[in-house]
Design brief:
35% strand, 204 residues, mainly beta, six-stranded antiparallel β-sheet
Length: 204
Amino acid sequence: MRTVRAIPCLLLAALAGAVGSCSDSSGPNGVPPGDLNVVHVAPTSALLFNAVDSFYAKRGEDREVRIYFQDGAGAAGEEYLRLRIDAPTLVALPDGTPILSGDSVLVHVRVVDPAQMLFELEPTGLKFNPLVPAQLKIHYDHAMGDLNDDGSVDGKDAAIEGTLAIWRQEKPGDPFVRLGSVLAEDLDEAEAELTGFSRYALAY
């Protein structure tokens, strides 16, 4: 599923062929962590291949990093998360120093809890081009259809799927704010554009 920039969210979903929804901000105060339902990875899911990874994002080049589940041999298997930073995305370091063409920044991605679809992206405070933000894609097929984690896959999970979105938490303990997200239910994936780094969760 491709992201089409500078197009309203609902139109973006239509162009992407997503059978799902786009979501707006949850409001200025967000949602307390205890009131948000973060999607869980099923206990029967494969283990993670790389729960922590990093790469050098470079001004002037398209670069990305991916988190994978293990395959049957313990190697990289199905994709779990993809973070893409395009050539013009990087603007300034957290201290405000401009990032010039050819400059690189070491970016870290960490799965906070292997049982939850909760991720930490660093360095926080990195400034992005608002016209060409970073792109985060999360695959939720390893929830095995049990989105409410009640031990069964039924109509409740189908109803929940249409409300899934990527949420941002500035730092642990802070409220979560829902991001405009493109949901592709046929592919079991959600995608959002990021204007900075912090914690991100797939949740409802």
